[in-house]
Amino acid sequence: MNSGSSFKFKWFNSCFRNLSAGNIRVQLVVLNSLCLVLMVFALMYTNNVHRTPPSHSQPYECKEDFGYGKASLEEIISGTAQQLDHPNFTYIRNANKTCIPNSDVLLLILVKSAVGHFRKRQYIRETWGIENGLHEDLIQQNFEDSYVNNTHKIKMALSWISEYCKQAKYILIVDDDMYVNIPNTISFILQEAISPDEDFYSGHLVPEPYPDRCLKSKHFISKTQYPFACYPPYIAGGSILLNKYTVEQFVRVMQFIPYLPFDDVFLGFIAQKLGIEPTKNAYISLEERTTNANDIKNFISQHGYNTNILFRIAYNNTHMQMKTVIKLA
Ligand SMILES: *[C@@H]1O[C@H](CO)[C@@H](O)[C@H](O)[C@H]1NC(C)=O
Ligand SMILES: *[C@@H]1O[C@H](CO)[C@@H](O)[C@H](O)[C@H]1NC(C)=O
Ligand SMILES: *[C@@H]1O[C@H](CO)[C@@H](O)[C@H](O)[C@H]1NC(C)=O
Ligand SMILES: *[C@@H]1O[C@H](CO)[C@@H](O)[C@H](O)[C@H]1NC(C)=O
């Protein structure tokens, strides 16, 4: 009896920890589960960024998972590793006019959205995306939209960048309920002097994640699918800021990482394989559903925008900043 109750307690405890620690992720994955379409904006500003190395946090080691993904990085790089059985999809829409070949693209923003989210995309086009909205700004591939297919969408985003906008120096990938403060994003990139040519994978850091074994959970994963006790650190999927170098490296190894249904965790594995550390970005807010769109002044991106009025208040706040940045450029 004792062992029975102890087992139960452990199970409950592990579920409880997942619920509290995974609070933020719950909302994000629900949103991601309906994504299929990506909307893209390419911002063209010239810049001369001089680099100072970004400060890395202390690495968290998920040693038990060491070796997950059979090919070593050396084998992948040398081309001797065998690709895993990820299906290849074809484009239905490819937004191939977004990035003019050889143009100078400082920042590329991709919005993960669902086919039916026309209204949300409209809010974005009328507010933070207003200067950059094109008619053919959608990317779509021929896979079915479902929760377990989420990772195909992030792979689509990365492949698309490498095929159609490889010159973009910085890349921001966001959900369609995020407000992006473009002036702050550009200021951050320029002021922090992040190099486009070294590791940069940042956002809301999930530093010590572990697999969810609660059967009823949206994030449940069986021990057959994933036998280990922890995940490597990753950046929560609602808003991910990367640079050119990191996207190139991710694309190189993504075919060699076993498929996991959680797109952001999948990126964590890619980064681990490459030895790229995810870094916390204090200006990316995924904490709460937004009640005060005035806070956007202090952020790169903020989560929880679901009404026209929230988008519009935020737009009024960022609009003045926008004018300042355009003058600078
Ligand atoms: C996907 O495409 C790549 C590159 O063309 C190819 O090497 C690979 O075998 C394809 N994968 C499948 C499952 O068809
Ligand atoms: C863009 O893609 C469409 C459809 O695949 C193709 O017809 C067109 O030629 C492409 N345009 C450019 C500029 O690559
Ligand atoms: C994922 O997409 C593929 C391709 O469209 C489809 O065959 C598969 O059924 C999808 N999976 C789910 C669970 O929807
Ligand atoms: C935004 O600013 C304009 C002009 O100042 C004002 O008319 C409008 O009511 C404001 N909108 C919101 C949602 O605050």
Automatic annotation (TrEMBL):
Locations listed in the record: Golgi apparatus membrane
Keyword Membrane: yes
UniProt main location, coarse: Golgi
Leader peptide range in chain numbering: none
Membrane disposition: Single-pass type II membrane protein
InterPro entries registered for this protein in UniProt: Glyco_trans_31, Nucleotide-diphossugar_trans
Residues passing through the membrane, by range: 26-45
Alphabetized UniProt keyword annotations: Glycoprotein, Glycosyltransferase, Golgi apparatus, Membrane, Signal-anchor, Transferase, Transmembrane, Transmembrane helix
GO molecular function, one term: hexosyltransferase activity
EC number, UniProt record: 2.4.1.-
Classification via Pfam families: Galactosyl_T
Cellular component terms per the entry's GO annotation: Golgi membrane
Keyword Kinase appears in the UniProt entry: no
Single biological process term from Gene Ontology: protein O-linked glycosylation
Family the entry assigns: Belongs to the glycosyltransferase 31 family.
PANTHER family found in the cross-reference section: BETA-1,3-GALACTOSYLTRANSFERASE BRN, BETA-1,3-N-ACETYLGLUCOSAMINYLTRANSFERASE
Entry protein name: Hexosyltransferase
Originating species: Magallana gigas
